[in-house]
Amino acid sequence: MQITLVCVVTALLAAAVRRGAPEAALLLGLAAAVAAVLALSESLRSLMDFFGELMARTGVSNELFVPLYKTVGIALVVKIGSGLCKDAGAAALASAVEIAGAVCALLAALPLLQKAMDVLLELMG
Predict the structure, then answer these.
(1) Each residue of 22-61: pLDDT tens digit?
(2) Disulfide check for 25: which of 18, 33, 57, 77 has CB 3.0–4.6 Å away?
């Protein structure tokens, strides 16, 4: 709730400042995004600890979870970056960030996809 409130207030301030100083409005948005991520750092740590415990208890290999972590991280960075580009009025750059993010996410997930293919080929014979 606090993060949402800070982001909404920042968005309203940025809208008020945008006419006179669009650069300041963009910096406000960037600062709020950084503050939101920093505010979530403890929650993210707890989540990572849980997944670490889950891996240890189930015996699932670390190489299956690492691509998932990377892909989620890439998606979050791309979402924020794309939004900031859109706020700056650079829709084409936002699209480029999204395309680059999709390619990077697929590359990060490649080991997981290869493992799935190996399992399928093994089951097929």
Answers:
(1) 888 888 888 888 888 888 888 888 988 988 888 888 887 7
(2) 18
Distance of CA 31 to the CA centre of its chain: 16
- Rounded to whole angstroms, what are the CA distances from 1 to 4, 55, 76, 112? 5, 30, 19, 35
Q: How far is CA 67 from the centre of its chain?
A: 13
Could you tell me the CA-to-CA distances from 47 to 42, 51, 53, 106 in Å, in that order?
Answer: 9, 6, 10, 23
**This prediction's pTM:** 0.71
Max CA distance (Å), the chain: 67
Give the separation between CA 112 and CA 93, rounded to whole angstroms. Answer: 29
61 Rama class: left (phi>0) / alpha (psi -120 to 50) / beta: beta
DSSP E strand stretches across the chain: none
Condensed to tens digits (0 to 9), the pLDDT of residues 18-31 reads 888 888 888 888 88
User: Where exactly are the structural domains of the chain?
Assistant: 1-39, 42-125
